[in-house]
């Protein structure tokens, strides 16, 4: 049984121009007993199999990682969102998100898990023929076979479609002969199955192939020596006349780039969601250490400077979690609606993910950057011990860093967010123009002096949130007007706009979850959540203001700049909050519980 | 082979323990509950025995409705059905009577449970059930193998190990390393929902023990380090401060 919130009709990207009610969002507190038990069992797996073996894993002990993957397979962890017809559990998308969330605290294993269940399995699941699915998916869902995904090449990283790997039809027409070099391939060292992207003859676009290791013609370099996730296998893979049966082409010729991009949508949102448990365990470890470590005769957790870090970790993690499961459920709802309209389930999943690709990119960036905040301050809380391999923070610090790089760097994803928003607006799929024009009018009109009633809890935040959306519409609208299609070349401005959108989505998700929790636990019972929400929101407003101010100053001047800055001021105006008290209140709970301030799945 | 596994529903080992109502009630706020760790081993061994010899596993819990998630976890781990005696497990004798009453009905070949619960750590229930049913009871059992209708058991005793053979049925209080504790697999979790969980009323024997007051043990004091050369100080501390000499 899967818990579902009231269905939302919000389409991807529409968060910027529409309001959402608390009832419409799914919050992780609403996971069913069964889903929570799955999360707890996954945590048990980490505690039993991963944590005690961290050093062995990072030393790449022969055969260990594949055997851990097999154990995960026996527990059913590799096939959670795979349909039952192909040996999986057929759970919804958000349950798959939940697994990624919990697995997140397992460092190197998390990458192996993500590469296998995400980019390794999904291309076949979403684009494979029935025969291909029957042949490969059950083996992947049980862990009997391990998969990897070969897109990146030495000269084709962010520019993935520029790959040089070639596929040529054999004279007898029975095989494609693949030649080329791939780089940075996770799981390559032990994979039985390779999803390979190559260009047939002189095609402009990539084609995807399902390649079994057994086909031969595959060789590899040694393991890369990496900064972090040292236990995850990462190798260069060479294809030398690798003979792939023609029936192993995935989808159609030249459809490979589309497959790569769409599968990365899933990879991204799961990567973003897949930091949560990592952040929580870092916050817990840091709290525990701060309670135990004494300086100047007291626990360092009694210092405001340390409490600030702990509280920030909690509030930011709470925000990532709120945004992830909100988007996850939106995707589930969209899938269900499309299936309801008669669409094939695999197609429906792809379509829904495509619809929410903006949110997927937002969550990838936001999650990876919150993780980096947590590990960085985690090291700091530990002081000198943070720098020692004897304490857990050094490894966490190194392992976290990759998240901002793979599955599309955060820069590429930032550009995608704004690019996709504008593209949808141009196509008329997303009505940005109307609301942007309304904001333009509001700018030149006399501000309304009406005071809305803001006495209810979070009423002010909700009111300010509406204006924050206007600030983003104002900046993005003006930039689009100024540069037209050349806006793509103005990356500095795109980055600022993307940051505004990311913060708006995260802040809104956090407010909505908190409102729902207030209804659930009462005003007093939800104090902790309100505090985290207020703290997060306050920071988000500041960031949005900074990014907006800086952006408009990049491309307007004189009176126009003045009007824009006035607009930013008006749209980001909020009553100052006492962040010291908020942080102290959050940290108090952490210090008392000696861990992250709330737990969801026991 | 029919196996009955009795499980407790106890606070997680990392829970903060506090009391309410003038220290007469355990404060449940924020406490997460788990299957008693020793019971978890008993259940894991039952699952292994079932894999080797076939049969069925029934889990039994004496507890109020709030224990059902814990019971369902046992079903997810591999029990086939569950029985909950709908009563607060107020004392060992009361619980033993409820278990004996259910066990008599079921004609089980084996009755397994943890050597003790980890909330009150009484460690009495297995022997009480044995007495009430007129069956042998053994604890703490660390190895349990079945051959035909005989069990081969290893038990920890003061200063050594005891090896014994026993005819079924009997009651065993289990502890590690009797089995490796099991993580429920995802499919098990999904099928737990459709496995039968029967709720029965308790026998009407009254409760015989009552809690007057709970007290937390005194907080641990800081460790004093004594230089290995300084034996006099050690003797002095043991005599006058710890008062153990
Ligand atoms: C540990 C690890 C595991 C990996 N696993 C896999 C895997 O399993 N399969 C796979 O196919 N790939 C994998 N990758 C590859 C990964 O996806 C790429 O490294 C990533 O996409 C970036 O490509 P690149 O390394 O070539 O960097 P580049 O593309 O050279 O980027 C360098 C910098 O330039 C920026 N940049 C690039 N283009 C632009 C632009 N147009 N505008 C602005 N900035 C830009 C980037 O953001 C980045 O900061 C893995 C990488 C690592 C390190």
TrEMBL record, chain A:
It catalyses: a 2,3-saturated acyl-CoA + A = a 2,3-dehydroacyl-CoA + AH2. InterPro entries: Acyl-CoA-dh-like_C, Acyl-CoA_DH_CS, Acyl-CoA_Oxase/DH_mid-dom, Acyl-CoA_Oxase/DH_mid-dom_sf, AcylCo_DH-like_C, AcylCo_DH/oxidase_C, AcylCoA_DH/ox_N, AcylCoA_DH/ox_N_sf. It comes from the Bacteria. SUPFAM superfamilies: Acyl-CoA dehydrogenase C-terminal domain-like (SSF47203), Acyl-CoA dehydrogenase NM domain-like (SSF56645). Residues 148-242 form the Acyl-CoA oxidase/dehydrogenase middle domain. Keywords: FAD, Flavoprotein, Oxidoreductase. Residues 467-570 form the Acyl-CoA dehydrogenase-like C-terminal domain. The keyword Disulfide bond does not apply. Residues 255-418 form the Acyl-CoA dehydrogenase/oxidase C-terminal domain. Its cofactor is FAD. Belongs to the acyl-CoA dehydrogenase family. This is Alkylation response protein AidB-like acyl-CoA dehydrogenase.
Automatic annotation (TrEMBL), chain B:
InterPro entries: ETF_a/b_N, ETF_b, ETF_beta_N, Rossmann-like_a/b/a_fold. Pfam families: ETF. GO terms for cellular component: cytosol. Residues 23-209 form the Electron transfer flavoprotein alpha/beta-subunit N-terminal domain. SUPFAM superfamilies: Adenine nucleotide alpha hydrolases-like (SSF52402). Gene3D superfamilies: HUPs (3.40.50.620). It comes from the Bacteria. GO terms for molecular function: electron transfer activity. Keywords: Electron transport, Transport. Belongs to the ETF beta-subunit/FixA family. This is Electron transfer flavoprotein subunit beta.
């Amino acid at each position: 049984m899967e818990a579902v919130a009231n269905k939302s009709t919000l389409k991807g990207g529409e968060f910027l121009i529409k309001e959402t009610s608390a009832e419409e969002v799914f919050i992780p507190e609403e996971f069913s007993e069964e889903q929570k038990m799955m999360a707890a069992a996954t945590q048990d797996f980490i505690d039993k199999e991963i944590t005690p073996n961290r050093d062995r894993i990072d030393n790449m002990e022969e055969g260990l990682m594949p055997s851990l993957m097999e154990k995960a397979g026996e527990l059913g962890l590799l096939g959670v969102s795979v349909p039952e017809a192909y040996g999986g559990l057929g759970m919804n998308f958000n349950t798959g998100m939940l697994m990624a969330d919990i697995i997140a605290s397992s460092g190197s294993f998390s990458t192996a898990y993500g590469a296998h269940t995400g980019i390794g399995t999904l291309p076949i699941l979403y684009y494979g023929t029935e025969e291909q699915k029957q042949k490969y998916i059950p083996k992947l869902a049980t862990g009997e076979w391990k998969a990897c995904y070969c897109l990146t090449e030495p000269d084709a990283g962010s520019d993935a479609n520029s790959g040089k790997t070639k596929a040529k039809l054999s004279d007898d027409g029975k095989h494609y002969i693949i030649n080329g070099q791939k780089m940075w391939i996770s799981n390559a060292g032990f994979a039985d199955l390779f999803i390979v992207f190559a260009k047939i003859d002189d095609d402009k676009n990539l084609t995807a192939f399902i390649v079994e290791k057994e086909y031969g013609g595959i060789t590899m370099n040694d393991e890369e020596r990496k900064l972090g996730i040292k236990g995850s296998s990462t190798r260069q893979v060479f294809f030398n006349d690798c003979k792939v049966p023609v029936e192993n082409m995935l989808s159609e010729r030249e459809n490979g780039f589309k497959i790569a991009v769409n599968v990365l949508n899933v990879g991204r949102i799961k990567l973003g969601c897949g930091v949560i448990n990592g952040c929580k365990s870092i916050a817990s470890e840091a709290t525990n250490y701060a309670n135990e470590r004494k300086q100047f005769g007291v626990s360092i957790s009694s210092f405001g400077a340390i409490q600030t870090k702990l509280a920030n970790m909690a509030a930011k993690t709470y925000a990532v979690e709120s945004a992830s499961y909100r988007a996850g459920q939106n995707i589930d709802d969209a899938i269900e609606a499309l299936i309801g309209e008669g669409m094939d389930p695999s197609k429906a999943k792809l379509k829904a993910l495509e619809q929410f690709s903006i949110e997927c990119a937002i969550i990838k960036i936001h999650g990876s950057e919150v993780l980096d905040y947590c590990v960085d301050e985690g090291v700091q809380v530990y002081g000198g011990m943070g720098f020692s391999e004897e304490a857990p923070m050094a490894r966490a610090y190194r392992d976290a860093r990759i998240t901002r790089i793979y599955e599309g760097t955060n820069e590429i994803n930032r550009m995608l967010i704004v690019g996709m928003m504008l593209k949808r607006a141009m196509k008329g799929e997303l009505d940005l123009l109307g609301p942007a024009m309304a904001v333009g009018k509001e700018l030149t009109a006399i501000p309304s002096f009406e005071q809305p009633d803001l006495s209810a809890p979070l009423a002010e935040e909700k009111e300010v949130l509406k204006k924050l959306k206007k600030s983003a519409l104002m900046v993005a609208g003006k930039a689009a007007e100024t540069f037209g299609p050349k806006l793509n070349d103005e990356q500095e401005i795109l980055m600022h706009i993307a940051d505004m959108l990311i913060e708006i989505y995260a802040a809104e998700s956090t407010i909505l979850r908190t409102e729902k929790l207030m209804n659930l636990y009462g005003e007093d019972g939800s104090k902790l959540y309100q505090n985290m929400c207020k703290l997060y929101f306050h920071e988000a407003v500041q960031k949005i203001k900074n990014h907006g101010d800086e952006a408009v100053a990049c491309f307007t001047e004189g009176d126009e700049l003045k009007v824009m800055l006035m607009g930013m001021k008006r749209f980001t105006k909020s009553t100052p909050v006492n962040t010291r008290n908020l942080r102290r209140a959050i940290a108090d709970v952490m210090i008392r519980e000696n861990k992250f301030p709330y737990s969801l799945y026991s | 082979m029919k196996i009955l596994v009795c499980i407790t529903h106890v606070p997680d080992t990392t829970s903060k323990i506090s009391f309410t109502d003038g220290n007469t009630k355990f404060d449940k706020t924020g406490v997460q509950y788990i299957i008693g760790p020793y019971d978890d081993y008993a259940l894991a061994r039952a699952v292994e025995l079932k894999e080797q010899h076939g049969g069925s596993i029934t889990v039994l819990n004496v507890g109020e409705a709030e224990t059902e998630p814990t019971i369902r976890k046992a079903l997810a781990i591999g029990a086939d059905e569950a029985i909950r005696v709908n009563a607060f497990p107020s004392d060992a004798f009361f619980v033993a009577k409820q278990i004996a009453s259910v066990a008599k009905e079921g004609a089980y070949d084996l009755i397994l449970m943890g050597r003790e619960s980890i909330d009150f750590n009484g460690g009495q229930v297995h022997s009480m059930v044995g007495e009430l049913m007129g069956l042998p009871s053994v604890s703490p059992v660390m190895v349990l193998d079945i051959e035909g209708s005989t069990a081969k058991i290893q038990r920890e005793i003061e200063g050594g190990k005891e090896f014994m053979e026993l005819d079924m049925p009997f009651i065993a209080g289990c502890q590690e390393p009797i089995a490796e504790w099991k993580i429920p697999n995802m499919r098990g979790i999904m099928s737990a929902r459709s496995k039968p969980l029967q709720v029965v009323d308790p026998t009407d024997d009254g409760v015989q023990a009552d809690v007057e007051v709970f007290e937390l043990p005194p907080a641990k004091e800081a460790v004093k380090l004594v230089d290995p050369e300084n034996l006099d100080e050690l003797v002095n501390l043991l005599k006058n401060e710890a008062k153990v000499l």
